[in-house]
Amino acid sequence: MSEETTAASEAGPASVLLIDDHPLLRKGVKQLIDLEDDLEVIAEASNAETGVAKAVETDPDLILLDLNMPEINGIETLKMLREADVGSRIVVFTVSDNEEDVVAALRAGADGYLLKDMEPEELLASLNQAALGKMVISEKLTALLAQALQAGRTTKSADISSLTPRERQIIKLIAAGLPNKLIARKLSITEGTVKVHVKHLLKKLNLRSRVEVAVWAVNEGLS
Amino acid sequence: MSEETTAASEAGPASVLLIDDHPLLRKGVKQLIDLEDDLEVIAEASNAETGVAKAVETDPDLILLDLNMPEINGIETLKMLREADVGSRIVVFTVSDNEEDVVAALRAGADGYLLKDMEPEELLASLNQAALGKMVISEKLTALLAQALQAGRTTKSADISSLTPRERQIIKLIAAGLPNKLIARKLSITEGTVKVHVKHLLKKLNLRSRVEVAVWAVNEGLS
DNA sequence: AGCGAAATACCACTTTGGAGGTACCTCCAG
DNA sequence: CTGGAGGTACCTCCAAAGTGGTATTTCGCT
Fold this sequence. Notes:
Chain A is α/β, with parallel strands linked by helices. Chain A has helices at residues 23-34, 48-58, 74-83, 99-107, 120-131, 139-150, 165-175, 180-187, 191-205, 210-219; strands at residues 14-19, 39-45, 62-65, 89-94, 112-115, 136-137.
């Protein structure tokens, strides 16, 4: 194997699905893309639901996704797409150069993040790259990203001082690799309660799993 | 609440379950324990199965567990006890001062590790401590333990050189906090396959969860 | 006296993770 | 050319993790 199995490419031009609630912009992008032999818009959608449906239906190579949509925003849509096991490359295409959006999108599994104020040629070049599997990010954002990643920061990211004593105690045990059950045993509380603390920890530190908590703690020196 | 809920103590002497395939030794220990007002042997077992059964049945405060038993060894028994959600303090009582055994026992959730060549008075003192929730370890072992923990080592612990390229690739992603699904996406393989690699990783590194793998990797500098 | 944060507990539920097993393919060494 | 190692996939099954609630107690601060 090694082909056919993962991406749905090979053969002709790479198929593109546009998801954007702005018809005019879709039209413009479509025209632009159709100038390119290697890319072809095979479907469009103006909201999350139909977007996901079309994605599942057409399994495109690339999905261009707007962030600012009514009702269900782009990040949610992104998650929905991934939930639906859409394997397509997903590139966020938006006006927002807000750090939180960028980080959230990449976190949610975006394969690229492009700003709508790009030059058309740049956009095409980026989309081609994306279709080939490269992660594409607008240059304007690289500095911002570097900064965000640097401090291990992602969005605001609180620090250890915002944690309660109990939480600090538990984070160390997580970093020691203990499962909730053992943490509970060690602290003589129920596993359910440990879960509550872990939940709060994840919330406060803006992390997504105990693994991230453990890594964070280790890097933070919470040995 | 705050009492009654966690340990099953209060009231009279702490109840003790002996699990050891050596009847004579059981008898000796029982006599010794019965000299102590604060401890009482309420059951005995000569193998894993009946040991677990009695533990579930009597929910003792303390379980004294021999490691060298036929058929199912002590470590397995220990795991079975924890599986069965036996909340009792479990103290391993054995002749083995082998590092692997000690580490494995503590890993498996033992609350103590005592050597059979202890002085009777020491044993009693230790058991009392254990019944009160203290972790008890024979002094002879402390040096060994310190050494084992020091290098993050636990048992022999293989190193990164024993991993295949694919495994090395995956361990980094685990350390980045990615769940299997995202790792699969990133490597363009199925989640099932990722699980296989993770399984092998756990086996090779002798770790018990992806959290431990992540911590190990971070400490190892696999950023 | 009253309020709010922290800690605890429980419950129902969904999603991940991990174990164990089979199977197929490729590449390389013996 | 046979066999093993590595990689991939798929399967079932069960445990662990996480989410969303509600609720109680304790403690410290107005």
